[in-house]
Amino acid sequence: MFYTIVYISSATQDFSEDDLVDLLNISRRNNILDDVTGMLLYRNGEFMQALEGEKCKVESLYKKISQDSRHNDIVVLARKDLVERVFKNWSMGFENLSGSALTKIEGYSDFIDVAFKDEEFRQQETAYNLLKKFAIS
User: Fold this and answer.
1) For the segment 41-97, what is each residue's pLDDT rounded down to a tens digit?
2) Distances from the Cα of 68 to the Cα of 10, 18, 29, 64, 94, angstroms
């Protein structure tokens, strides 16, 4: 059994592409050690993150994240058990980043650039819906 927390928050500082890449690299390294997967989106000063893994590890990571001064106004959207991971091989996704250099970063996902069809879409439907809701707001 897995567990997930999904939250939104507001950045307390501007994040450049370099800042986001640094955040990706640090989070990827730490998440691998804790066997935590998920997705982090950043758009116009707002974050949305889904974390998933063992409940104690996810709750511990969320507690640490919630104390990070780089964001505030944290609102938890969901806390629930999962039968399986939704973001099995994910670390983060960024709506505002582009460029071929990003695709070489371990943990970067091109999910937002992929046209989902048939079976591939069905496998990623939850991720797509999360991203779609975030992008529209």
Assistant:
1) 887 788 888 899 999 999 999 999 999 999 999 989 889 999 988 887 775 545 444
2) 11, 18, 17, 7, 19
The Cα angle at residue 38 between residues 78 and 10, in degrees rounded to 5 = 65
**Domains of the chain from N-terminus onward:** 2-136 (3.30.70.100)
Beta pairing, strands 2-11 & 71-82: antiparallel
- How does pLDDT run across 11-24, given as a tens digit for each residue? 999 988 888 888 88
Q: Chain-centre distance of CA 43, in angstroms?
A: 12
How many C-beta neighbours within 10 Å does residue 120 have?
Answer: 11
Residue 130 contacts residue 49 (beta carbons within 8 Å)? no
H helical segments located in 15-117? 17-34, 55-66
Split at pLDDT 50, 70, 90, the class of 115 is: very low
Greater confidence (131 vs 12) lies with 12
Q: What is the distance between the alpha carbons of residues 75 and 66, in angstroms, rounded to a whole number?
A: 10
Residue type, 118: D
The reported pTM is 0.70
